[in-house]
Amino acid sequence: MVKRVYMDHSATTPLDPRVLKAMEPYLTEEYGNPSSIHRMGQIARNGVETAREQVARLINAAPEEIIFTSGGTEADNLAILGLMEAMPPRGQHIITSAIEHHAVLDVFAYLERKGYQVTFLPVNEYGMVEPETLERAMKPNTALVSIMHANNEIGTIQPIKKLAAIAHEGGAVFHTDAVQTVGRIPVDVKDMGVDMLSCSAHKLYGPKGVGCLYKKKGIRLARRLFGGAQERKLRSGTENVPGIVGFGAAAEIAGEVMSESIEHLTKLGRNLSGSLLRLIPDTILTGDPVNRLPGHVSLCFRYVEGESILLMLDQLGIMASSGSACTSGSLDPSHVLLAIGLPHEIAHGSVRLSLGRTNTQEDVDYVVQVLPGIIERLRMMSPMTGEGVM
Fold first, then answer.
1. How many helices (H) and strands (E) does the chain have?
2. CB 203 within 8 A of CB 181
3. Which is catalytic among the residues 199, 212, 300, 326?
4. What global pTM score does this model have?
5. Which end of the chain has the lower number of beta carbons within 10 A, N or C?
């Protein structure tokens, strides 16, 4: 039987059994609509509001600042489009980075087509938005700055506190996509100084199909869905009660195990990246070597295609990804890797190994055992390798 090793936790995480246990009553006997005034409705409402408190506690927010959504993508759309539609149309300027998730990039591209002035900030070789770059890009009419907390492909963590301060000095609202960080590393919205923050339950061992937007008190948004008064009239529709309850349980567990998890994943990630870089020549570690998500290893192997590596890994029971899971169907190289200066031929050889709580040193050893041989075989078949390269 082939050993099964899951190293794609940046794409999604397994549902924690404790989360499933918390959800089960709301999937069966406690099926009331939280807008109903009868007993079953109020039980459902209590489940939703308890979860709101749990999620708020994880990021040091007030419960009333949490708006539940269907996930990180909807939260990003609500933050960006909701803010811009709530403002008077005065030719606003908006800023984001070149390495954002498409849930942000595509919204900015849409707004650019609608006539907004858009700046896509470059990043350095490690995928970092340098504060000086944002300072130079700010204009008197800059209304919004949206920079992700950590990149999903290369794991680099951004200096959000400094970036938010620069945005506020220029009179702009600051939003961050924190889908990759909430529940994995400490996130404190007050300390960071952000006005809005997006996150998703399935990245922190919760269910898919639920997330939230943190919206600081005083920030006005236009609603994106019509038809009801749910979520403070910003997100109409009957709440996904089981999913929200699961999100709350996952948030509470994440806060309890975070320190231990960071230590565990940092050690495994360093062992994995260090061994592979030592054993496989012509390999590039992408992202900041230090200031990165714990357990996040992103590599580019010269002279081979990332998709071929993934297929061979999968045959041996190892599940990883190449670039972002949300764009893996595209034949184009990662926009993130191109933004950090890698040429197309190298960017095509990317593999992301993102570890989670249940990964072990035995898992790392297995990957280290098989991946060098896979790369060697693929390079022997590759037309990109010339004589004397190997």
1. 13, 12
2. no
3. 326
4. 0.94
5. N
